[in-house]
Amino acid sequence: MNKTGSRIVTVVIVLAILIFAALIGGNIYSMMGPSQIPQPAAAVQSPPGPQPAGAQARSATAVRVTEVTPGTIENGVVINGDVLASSQVSIYPNMAGKLTQLRCRVGDWVNQGQVVASVDPSRPGEEYSESPVVSTISGTVLSVPASLGDTVSVSTAVYVVGDLANLVVETFVPERFSNAAQQGLGALVSLEALPGETFPATVSEVSPVLDPASRTLRIRLHFNRQDNRIRAGMFATVSLVTNTRQDVPVIPREAVINTYGSWLVFVVDGGNTARRRTITLGLENENSIEVLEGLEMGDLVVSAGQNFLSDGDPVRVVD
């Protein structure tokens, strides 16, 4: 038998085996009952009837809420300044000459009218009596710009004397806040030398004009209580309160979401459902925001978890 004949025989045998297997399989299923015939797997369905009580709670978003209550909110500006003596003057000689005597040192107390130095106005071939240098105010010697033996003129400062009993803070307010800077305005002062502490102060002096170069307004503040730890020359940070409102709806700053220029919050209703509200803002500071429109007193505003909410979502309020 050639190779072609062998291949034909092989194909015939394979076809016979397949036909025999198909006939046997049909007989087997014909002998089995309907319940014994394998069925395709069906999708698992939950039993009919009401769902468990905890099913909705598990799908709800956990949030924290804050009740809208009347409060006081302050708006302000933070600026830097320097601690100075309330009054500080330079002491000048009445005549030019050689400085022959310095009677005081830095830190000494001097009285008004006290002789603090002497100047010899003599010239070669001429002799004159020494001219006394007199303090024009009472206070503490802050600095001694001149040295013994210097030749001074009537425009040379020999001493700088200041009143350290009453310290002030001098600072400069930006132009946009200049109208709010009025005498009697309250502020809080913090000092780098005394970290973690704040000192209440009050605006006591306001310049009538703005500096045309810096566009700022110079003001001075007096401390409400003096503290011996505060010294002239210290660097100060001033939190100046420019506006205050009382008994207005106030909510936490983190509760507000900015979406395409609109401000919105989520409010939880009696059915534990989040409702989206568009609001209008008023005064704001680092922690709180005043709400002019969109909320009422007693509303429960979502203060944590609001970024995962949509209008109508179920929520679960947590402490």
Keywords for this structure?
Elongation Factor Tu (Ef-tu), domain 3; conserved putative lor/sdh protein from methanococcus maripaludis s2 fold; OB fold (Dihydrolipoamide Acetyltransferase, E2P); 319 residues; 21 strands; mainly beta
Number of domains: 3
Q: What is the third-level CATH name, the topology of the largest domain?
A: Elongation Factor Tu (Ef-tu), domain 3
**Which CATH architecture of the largest domain?**
Beta Barrel
Rounded mean pLDDT is 84
Largest sheet: 6 strands, antiparallel, barrel
Strand element count: 21
Supply the number of helical segments.
2
Order of secondary-structure elements: HHEEEEEEEEEEEEEEEEEEEEE
What is the CATH first-level class name of the largest domain?
Answer: Mainly Beta
The largest sheet has its strands arranged as 2-11-14-13-12-15
What overall geometry do the principal axes of the alpha carbons give?
elongated
How large is the radius of gyration?
44 Å
Helix proportion range:
10-25%
Low-confidence stretches: 28-37, 39-58
Structural class: mainly beta
Question: Describe it for me?
Answer:
The chain is mainly beta. The protein folds into 3 domains: 61-72 and 246-317, conserved putative lor/sdh protein from methanococcus maripaludis s2 fold; 77-84 and 167-245, Efflux pump adaptor protein, beta barrel domain (Elongation Factor Tu (Ef-tu), domain 3, Beta Barrel); 88-162, RNA polymerase II/Efflux pump adaptor protein, barrel-sandwich hybrid domain (OB fold (Dihydrolipoamide Acetyltransferase, E2P), Beta Barrel). The protein contains 2 helices and 21 strands. The chain has helices spanning 3-31, 55-59; strands spanning 61-67, 69-85, 88-91, 97-102, 109-110, 115-120, 131-134, 139-143, 151-152, 159-162, 167-174, 186-191, 194-206, 216-223, 235-252, 257-259, 262-268, 274-284, 288-293, 300-304, 315-317. The strands form 4 sheets. The protein has a 6-stranded antiparallel barrel with strand order 2-11-14-13-12-15. The chain has a 4-stranded antiparallel sheet with strand order 3-10-8-5, with no helix packed on it. Mean pLDDT is 84; it is low at 28-37 and 39-58.
